[in-house]
Structure formats: structure tokens, C-alpha cells
Amino acid sequence: MRKIAVCPGSFDPITKGHLDIIRRASQLFDRVIVLVSVNPDKDATFSATQRMEFIERATANLPNVVTDFSDGLLADYMRDCGACAIVKGLRAVSDFEYEFQMAMANKKLNPDAETVFLTTQGENMYLSSSLVRQIGRLGGDISTFVPPEILHDIETGLRKK
Ligand code: PNS
């Protein structure tokens, strides 16, 4: 049976940290769906279409990775697409409580939805989309934080905001 994993997130925008988790998930599962999802606690800077396009360009070299969007519950999406695992990256202990809570809630809503955590590589421990947005908006160098294929468009997008 083909094993499908979903990597959900706001991806506003995708960072090298996200990409590392997606790449490693693509080696563990037959197919990985990078799911741009709605986090009701966050106002997105980039539109869902832009975020998906950034992900598509950054993952173009990973043949078993596709991108999708959902404005519903992740637990329902998992059921609809036949995925067996939610893959998330864990940066530090500070991520754990929030991620643990979401993993438990998703399991309650869909008992087949297992959450798998991959530990972030040391160099990405501090990296987050919000840090990229803040530095980029103020004209700082974000080239070490985001994939090179989309650097220019992210920089341009952030300077306009
Ligand atoms: O990158 P983020 O913002 O930390 O990702 C959080 C996200 C988008 C994965 C989470 O908010 C989510 O799963 N949203 C979809 C709606 C949903 O299912 N919410 C309940 C989660 S337990």
C-alpha cells in the first residue's frame, strides 16, 4: 500500500527549515502532500496562491511531492486523501506543547491520523516564517533563510507590504 504523508502549515512563506522537513519526509513516504492550511490565529502576508506557488517552485526537484490547499480541518483532509501521517518539524522544546496539543486533537478528530515529528537540523533551529517576514520587510538579507529559487519574489513581496 502506498503511504501518503501530509505536511501542513501556514508556509507564509516556506523557509529552508520547512523544505528540509519536506525533503526528509519525501524519503520516508511514497507521496508527500504539502498542505497550505488556514491557521485562524494568523493573518497571512502572502495569499494562499502565492504560498502554494512558492512551495511548488521550491520542491520542483522532489518528484513525489505535491502541493495543495485546504481551508477546512486537517483531520478531514487526511481522511479524504487517504494519508496515514501528518509530518511536522520540531525545532525546540518550545514547539512541543503546541504541536503535541494539535497532534492529540487531530487524533481525536480522526483516529487514523498519526502525527510524526522530525527534529529540525541544528542550523534551522531558530528559523521561522515570521522571522523571515520581519527581516525581509525591513530590507535585511533573507538569502540564508529561504530557498534560492523564490528568494527574489519573497523579497519583492515583503518590501511591498
Ligand atoms: O505553520 P502553522 O501556522 O504553525 O500551522 C498550523 C496549521 C495550519 C497546521 C494548523 O493551524 C491547522 O492544522 N490548520 C487547519 C485547521 C485545523 O485542522 N485546525 C485544528 C488543528 S488541531
From TrEMBL:
* Keywords, comma-separated and alphabetical: ATP-binding, Coenzyme A biosynthesis, Cytoplasm, Magnesium, Nucleotide-binding, Nucleotidyltransferase, Transferase
Q: Which cofactor does it need?
A: Mg(2+)
Q: Where in the cell is it found?
A: Cytoplasm
- UniProt-listed SUPFAM superfamilies: Nucleotidylyl transferase
Record: residues binding ATP: S10, F11, H18, G89, L90, R91, E99, N124, M125, Y126, L127, S128, S129, S130
Query: Where is this chain primarily localised?
Result: cytoplasm
Query: What sort of enzyme, by top EC class, is this?
Result: transferase
Annotated GO molecular function terms are: pantetheine-phosphate adenylyltransferase activity
What Pfam families is this protein classified in? Answer: CTP_transf_like (PF01467)
The pathway this protein participates in, as annotated, is:
Cofactor biosynthesis; coenzyme A biosynthesis; CoA from (R)-pantothenate: step 4/5
- Where the record annotates domain Cytidyltransferase-like, the positions are 6-134
Q: Where is this site: Transition state stabilizer?
A: H18
Residues reported to bind substrate: S10, K42, L74, K88
**EC number in record:** 2.7.7.3
Catalytic reaction list: (R)-4'-phosphopantetheine + ATP + H(+) = 3'-dephospho-CoA + diphosphate
Q: Does the keyword Nucleotidyltransferase apply?
A: yes
Q: Which InterPro entries match?
A: Cyt_trans-like, PPAT, Rossmann-like_a/b/a_fold
Q: Which residues form a coiled coil?
A: none
Q: What does this protein do?
A: Reversibly transfers an adenylyl group from ATP to 4'-phosphopantetheine, yielding dephospho-CoA (dPCoA) and pyrophosphate.
Instruction: Tell me the protein family, please.
Output: Belongs to the bacterial CoaD family.
Self-association state and partner proteins as the record states = Homohexamer.
Q: Which PANTHER family match?
A: PHOSPHOPANTETHEINE ADENYLYLTRANSFERASE (PTHR21342:SF1)
The name this protein goes by in its record: Phosphopantetheine adenylyltransferase
Q: Which organism is it from?
A: Clostridium facile
- Origin organism lineage: Bacteria, Bacillati, Bacillota, Clostridia, Eubacteriales
Name the gene.
coaD
